[in-house]
Design brief:
This protein is an all-alpha fold. 74% of the residues lie in helices and 0% in strands. The chain folds into two domains: 158 residues, UbiA prenyltransferase (Tetracycline Repressor, domain 2); 141 residues. It has 16 helices and no strands. Helix 2 packs parallel to helix 16, helix 3 packs parallel to helix 6 and helix 14 packs antiparallel against helix 16. The longest helix is centred in the C-terminal third of the chain and has 29 residues. It is a multi-pass membrane protein. Interacts with CtaA.
Length: 311
């Protein structure tokens, strides 16, 4: 939790880029892309102006979540190498400013999405912000090694929101996209935790590498990757899949399984000797994995509008 008394005084006046950094723009890119795919993959077309406005408000909601997360986690961000240069621990932005920005953007995004799309989409966006800021950041992250597993749901809701923007309802296809992100999140973050464990030790965050050790984390990565591969390839045979998606998914999941197998077989001496090179490569692959899967879903959806895609 943020302790204002421990936050460094502002080194200089904050710039616009510092406030933008509070919104976690990299995470926002993934949210925007998956929400857009969810909207375009739906069987109902959306007017371009409504679609653009709706995705914009989803992006603003994602930024609000990021600001609230940085406000709450400023104390642990300050002791982790990966996050020490974020605006609050770096003394660029005061915690109260981040909180005000997060709350203000939350209300704005939810209200405007309800006006531009529908109330169900706005409700899902509100729940997503709450889940990330409160359930994950304020509760799970510091309470359980399953923080990433359960908290990963927050990052998995955007394609569902996108689908609801178009259809005004839930569907199996929307939840398949949700499940794809949900199952991808643990191996993605655990691979990062393997070569960044000292950060979580220093911050006293109960990541799986800290509470159960690296060998257990390697086993978990292997298990989740197997389940993820089954889900991802199986999605290729559903209404949002097709030949292109299935081809992309089979190749990516073979590479992902090989990477997870190599991680599983590694001992710590070998990993330390090459500076966790295998784990780092797996983490980088995981970044492409999700974008390429959702990109393939988008291609299939585009082809279906031309009467060429799907099965």
């Amino acid at each position: 939790m943020t302790d204002v008394s421990q936050t460094p005084a502002l080194e200089n006046e904050a710039e616009l880029g510092d406030y933008f950094a509070l919104l976690k723009p990299r995470v926002m890119q993934l949210v925007v892309f998956t929400a857009l795919v969810g909207m375009l993959a739906a069987p109902v077309s959306v007017h371009p102006v409504i679609g653009f406005a709706s995705i914009l408000f989803v992006a603003i909601g994602a930024g609000a979540s990021g600001a609230l997360n940085m406000w709450w986690d400023a104390d642990i961000d300050a002791v982790m190498r990966r996050t020490a240069k974020r605006p609050i621990p770096a003394g660029k932005v005061q915690p109260g400013e981040a909180l005000a920005l997060g709350v203000g953007l939350s209300f704005l995004s939810v209200m405007m999405l309800g006006l531009s799309a529908n109330l169900l989409a706005a409700g899902m966006l509100l729940f997503t912000i709450f889940f990330y800021a409160v359930v994950y950041s304020m509760w799970l992250k510091r309470a359980t090694p399953q923080n990433i597993v359960i908290g990963g749901a927050a990052g998995a809701f955007p394609p569902v929101i996108g689908w609801i923007i178009a259809t005004g309802s839930f569907s199996v296809e929307a939840w398949l996209m949700f499940a794809l992100i949900f199952m991808w999140t643990p191996p993605h973050f655990w691979a990062l935790a393997l070569f960044m464990r000292s950060d979580y030790d220093d911050a006293n965050v109960p990541m799986l590498t800290v509470t159960h050790g690296r060998p257990a984390t390697r086993r978990h990565i292997m298990a989740y990757t197997v389940l993820l591969a089954l889900l991802a390839v199986g999605t290729g045979f559903t209404a949002i899949g097709g030949y292109i998606y299935l081809t992309v998914s089979v190749v990516l999941n073979l590479l992902f399984l090989i990477g997870a197998w190599r991680i599983w077989q590694r001992d710590e001496a070998a990993a330390e000797a090459d500076n966790y090179m295998v784990e780092r490569k797996f983490f980088r692959l995981s970044l492409y994995y999700l974008f390429l899967h959702f990109g393939a879903i988008l291609v299939e959806a585009t082809l279906r509008t031309w009467g060429m895609g799907g099965w």
